[in-house]
């Protein structure tokens, strides 16, 4: 005998407060076999995870930050019964709500922090010779409307103009070795909804040396704290080339990026960790000099 979990929603994506509906399907079950205590559990948890890049830095912190259960909902799909056909389905419905004393966070897979939700099933078969393999847990993606908004923050876009010159990106002692340039641009906001795009534009007003490429990077910054110790590390989520070669002076170059599911989430400030995001605008000159302009952003749902 074997069994598997099936969900009604193919996307496996749910908002907080919604019900996750599906069935536990048991196949090749002999007639007359008794079962009992058929239950399903939705569990959401936060855990820190070690990357080979920073094992030493995290060795002292992670043992002090055990996994945190933020959601655990159980449904009894069947108390007891007898299999009467070769394929039997047990429907279930579990609501996405937080564990008492906790708050729901969005599904997220980072380098050092992971927030996951999964549905597990378990039950017993009374006849010892007839065993049912435990179905593989199903991971679901949870969205939490309103998450990422800080008290007093407006959801209305606030245009962010900027200008980049040698004096804005370098120490005075380095100015003599830098090319002359002036770059102007604008971000549509510093606050972005995850299901909408990041957007903006830049213009190369002046550059005494040719430009080789212009790239847009989405950076995550994960921080983990324990007592007086802490760990903070920026890592790249994705990078897009927005221009190749020496672009025409005065041409408006659009900046556009979609936020990837699973690897981004609303900006999160939790008890022992933070997840923040920023955009890097990277301009590489033909002689190898690279300048990077950093823009902290807030992601919200």
TrEMBL record:
Pfam families: Vps26. One of its GO terms (biological process) is intracellular protein transport. It comes from the Eukaryota. Belongs to the VPS26 family. This is Arrestin-like N-terminal domain-containing protein. It comes from Stentor coeruleus.
